[in-house]
Amino acid sequence: MVRVLNERYLTLAEVCKVLEEKERKYELSDIEQITLDYVKKFSKIDAEEAVKIVEKLVKEYGLSEEIAIQIVNILPESLEELRTVTSISKKFISTEEAEAILKMLKEALNKER
After folding, report:
1. Looking at beta carbons, which pairs linking 72-77 to residues 24 or more positions away fall under 8 Å?
2. How confident is residue 113, by pLDDT bands cut at 50, 70 and 90?
């Protein structure tokens, strides 16, 4: 039986990294392989960069970890897209903060290309 030691949210990039590391050691189950294929297709930045951005969104902008991870997973490119993701947050993001976040996301995405 599997015992859960801890639980936390992960970005798609982090899931990709975990599954790729597991794949090097063991054969992945069908669901793990499907998940790996999915995250490879949809993660847009590497795991280390994703973690840095999540930490910055939480510490500097006061967003919850869950919202920050969704922002990193989606990497919105417009103010409207970002507002859609943050609309469920209890923290109001000013236009200046939103523009700074979008600039940060754009820079991270450009590093990957």
Report:
1. 72/11, 72/13, 72/45, 72/105, 73/11, 73/12, 73/42, 73/43, 75/44, 75/45, 75/105, 75/108, 75/109, 76/102, 76/105, 77/102, 77/105, 77/106
2. low
pLDDT in tens, 4-27: 899 999 999 999 999 999 999 999
| Contact by Cβ (8 Å): 28, 36 | yes
What is the C-alpha separation between 36 and 31, in angstroms, rounded?
Answer: 9
Q: Which two tokens stand for residue 2?
A: 């599997």
Listed residue (16, 14, 13) closest to 28, CA to CA? 16
Report how far apart, in Å, the C-alpha atoms of 7 and of each of 4, 10, 13, 37, 89 are.
7, 10, 17, 23, 21
